[in-house]
């Protein structure tokens, strides 16, 4: 079985319209057919995917050759009624063969599909055959998926917490919750691994829900704490959370359940996120802000940041991505970029949080830049949310901690002396 997926087909639809897309699909099918024998079976599987069941008489090498042929015929530019432009696409193909005894349609489809994704991952425009290595990887990923589903179902995803400090006062003004998957054997799976998994499995709202609950729980736990008692708590949210008004509902219900005002909550939306500024999204943000929830644009400066993206959303904070400040040492011009963003943000009424502060040098620059808020390993690393209060108190009471030194350096009195 061959699983053929056209590369960059979406661009055809987006740039030249669906009629052109349809034309390319029909012609692709013709071209694929020309590479096959009359005894092979070709079907369109959906969207820009084709499935080919090769005649069992074909040997394995035959399948590889046919895949190569298909890639070659699809590389030729397409012309059509849309105008003089030639459209160029390519194809990624997964190949699976199974012994007749094990040959179920589901198995073949699954293997070929997985191999096709591997072809995409390796840079597209190629064919990959499903083999024992891919099988091991598929099983590992399947295992991870099962474990992750269980983790979410049982509510066992944990929250680390990292404070955000006001540069002016040295106070903790915010606390960001960061999802943590601690496995029974003690290893920690990083979010860079499980957040994409959650997205793939459609479980991202499960993550957000657990973090909102952690926010409610922690806000209660920190009530009356001299250092953390008035801080707002920030939860990271994803584009998928916005569907059908889910986020608004979840915030309202969870905060009510914990008896916490929604005005204690900040939602962080990554800037690279595909929030299209649709009327629905904007309405939901406005409704959230009406409840008193504040909104931050996360990872600003990494994606397609533009003046427009800053202006078109009702946003309270802009979080400058850690990569901006990390580059400060190598490239002094970076400070100009950061200054521009800071100025712009203040003009449109947004406050700037600088993430990833790791050194005293960076801190000095930021003080000069008059940044409002800072977050980073220098001041405080993320720690399990339950132990944050004790951890911060410990840092404050130790005159040799970087946190104490940092604020001694900026000339700010420490707010709390234990
Ligand atoms: P983020 O939202 O930008 O979170 C900040 C990341 O920077 C965290 O990584 C934090 O541990 C790390 N960090 C903090 N201070 C420093 C520093 O001084 N230097 C450096 N190099 N890094 C620092 P983490 O916890 O691994 O999270 C990575 C990303 O995963 C987050 O980036 C966020 O996009 C995502 N994520 C984490 N938790 C959640 C969640 O509950 N929901 C969603 N949707 N995404 C999450
Ligand atoms: Ca964040
Ligand atoms: Ca960030």
Description:
By secondary structure, the protein is of the alpha/beta class. The chain has 15 helices and 17 strands. The protein has an 8-stranded mixed barrel. Strand 15, helix 13 (360-369) and strand 16 (373-374) form a beta-alpha-beta unit. Helix 1 (9-16) packs antiparallel against helix 2 and helix 7 runs parallel beside helix 8. The model has no long low-confidence stretch (mean pLDDT 90). Residues 162, 178-179, 190-192, 195, 207, 211, 236, 238, 268, 270, 298-299, 322, 355-358, 376-377, 382 line the site of ligand C2E.
* Number of contiguous helices: 15
Class from helix and strand fractions: alpha/beta
Average pLDDT rating: 90
Major pleated sheet: 8 strands, mixed, barrel
Alpha carbon gyration radius:
26 Å
The small-molecule ligands in this entry are: ligand C2E, calcium ion
Instruction: Please report which band the strand proportion falls in: under 5%, 5-15%, 15-25%, 25-35%, 35-45% or over 45%.
Output: 15-25%
How much helix is in the residues?
A: 40-55%
Runs with pLDDT <50, length 5+?
A: none
Number of strands: 17
User: What characteristic shape results from the CA principal axes?
Assistant: elongated
What is the first-to-last residue Cα distance? Answer: 69 Å
Strand order of the largest sheet: 8-9-11-12-13-14-15-16
Give a summary of the structure in a few sentences.
The chain is of the alpha/beta class.
